[in-house]
Amino acid sequence: MSGLSIVGGGGNLSASQFTIAGAGAKIVYSYVLEPSSALLCGIAGLGLIVRRRR
């Protein structure tokens, strides 16, 4: 018997798996958006909005 659990929210994702035999693994990914990346995404989003209104 084994189980798999995936939990995420707020830019974080956690996955874990377990078995009755005692083997298991856990992987945690944390995504942090840098200020320059956020600015670039914001500018691109504004460009799409302006383009759509024309």
Structure, described:
The chain is an alpha+beta fold and 54 residues long. It has one domain. It has 1 helix and 3 strands. The chain has a 3-stranded antiparallel sheet, with no helix packed on it. β2 and β3 form a beta hairpin. The longest helix is centred in the last third of the chain and has 19 residues. The termini are far apart. The model has no long low-confidence stretch (mean pLDDT 76).
Give the biggest sheet.
3 strands, antiparallel
| Terminal Cα span | 58 Å
Number of helices: 1
H-E string: EEEH
- The count of strands amounts to 3
Shape: elongated
Residue fraction in strands: 35-45%
Determine the structural class based on helices, strands and strand pairing: alpha+beta
What spatial order of strands do you see in the largest sheet? 1-2-3
Please, how many domains? 1
Mean pLDDT: 76
| Parts with pLDDT < 50 across at least 5 consecutive residues | none
Helix content: 25-40%
> What is the C-alpha radius of gyration, as a whole number of Å?
19 Å
